[in-house]
């Protein structure tokens, strides 16, 4: 018997006589458990926000206004503040992940110029580039339109560029150099392929697919030090996949890494402002 609202996964196998066998797996229960877990994570993150804001608020006030704090008190309070901020980033990222996973934040795809998206993202990270004394280069760009949600694409591009700056320092020392490009591809379907390339230490092949999993970090200490939560790439993957794209990484140890993602080409071009 099939209950209304049941969710099935279909596996088909071809038969020698030219026919095919389709096997239906009822995954309703798995989906329900997953949804309950996502709701739980979202609720916990939400509940943690208020007490965390209170902790950092009080600590900041003490650090700013108490002149006669002992050196020890000042150093401990600074550590408390650093960790409260870290927890705050974690809860924000967990909430963002829960939102994209539950499709609670509906994406509004529209035709968007690929080159403009790259330029916007590059502009948005200019502060971080300066802070890290990194260099950011715009490579070749296509003017073709993708059909995607503006904010979601910007978030993914910014996240990849931030990672390239954070993890892209060459082993020999020196600063990160990052190249962001976008080109049109026809295979397997017409799409724009965005890429963010760095010349850092690279990622060993056994980590390459796993870094898109939640909380997976090649070097936990390094990620923590740079303010990472280990959720950025999981969020990026979800955002790209829900928009009909693919995201992956290529890397050679000691030579650098390239993060790439595709987005479908818009069938109808963007309407120019003056035409509106
Ligand atoms: P984090 O918050 O730790 O940066 P991400 O999900 O963005 O989390 O990335 C997961 C892990 O992938 C990072 O901790 C790092 O080990 C690795 N990584 C991501 N981008 C790069 C890169 N450009 N070069 C080398 N390693 C990277």
TrEMBL record:
Its main location: membrane. It comes from the Bacteria. Residues 43-267 form the Histidine kinase domain. The keyword Transmembrane applies. Keywords: ATP-binding, Cell membrane, Kinase, Membrane, Nucleotide-binding, Phosphoprotein, Transferase, Transmembrane, Transmembrane helix, Two-component regulatory system. GO terms for cellular component: plasma membrane. It is found in: Cell membrane. One of its GO terms (biological process) is cellular response to phosphate starvation. It catalyses: ATP + protein L-histidine = ADP + protein N-phospho-L-histidine. This is histidine kinase. The lineage of its organism: Bacteria, Pseudomonadati, Acidobacteriota, Terriglobia, Terriglobales. The chain holds residues 189 to 464 of 464 of the full protein.
């Amino acid at each position: 018997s099939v209950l209304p609202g049941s969710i099935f996964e279909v596996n088909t196998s071809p038969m020698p006589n030219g026919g095919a066998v389709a096997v239906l797996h009822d995954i309703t229960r798995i989906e329900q458990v997953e949804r309950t877990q996502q709701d739980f994570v979202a609720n916990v993150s939400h509940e943690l926000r208020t007490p965390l804001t209170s902790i950092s608020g009080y600590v900041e006030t003490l650090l700013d206004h108490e002149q006669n704090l002992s050196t020890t008190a000042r150093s401990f309070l600074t550590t408390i503040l650093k960790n409260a901020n870290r927890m705050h980033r974690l809860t924000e990222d967990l909430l963002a992940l829960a939102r994209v996973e539950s499709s609670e934040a509906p994406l509004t795809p529209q035709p968007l110029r690929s080159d403009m998206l790259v330029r916007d993202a590059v502009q948005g990270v200019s502060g971080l580039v300066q802070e890290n004394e990194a260099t950011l280069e715009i490579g070749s760009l296509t003017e073709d339109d993708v059909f995607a949600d503006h904010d979601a694409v910007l978030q993914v591009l910014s996240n990849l560029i931030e990672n390239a700056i954070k993890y892209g320092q060459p082993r020999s020392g020196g600063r990160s150099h990052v190249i962001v490009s976008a080109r049109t591809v026809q295979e397997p379907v017409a799409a724009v392929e965005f890429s963010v390339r760095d010349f850092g230490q690279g990622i060993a092949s056994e980590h390459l697919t796993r870094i898109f999993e939640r909380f997976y970090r090649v070097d936990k200490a390094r990620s923590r030090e740079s303010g990472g939560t280990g959720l950025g790439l999981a969020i990026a993957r979800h955002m790209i996949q829900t928009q009909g794209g693919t995201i992956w990484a290529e890397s050679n140890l000691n030579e650098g890494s390239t993060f790439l993602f595709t987005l479908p080409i818009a069938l109808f071009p963007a309407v120019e402002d003056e035409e509106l």
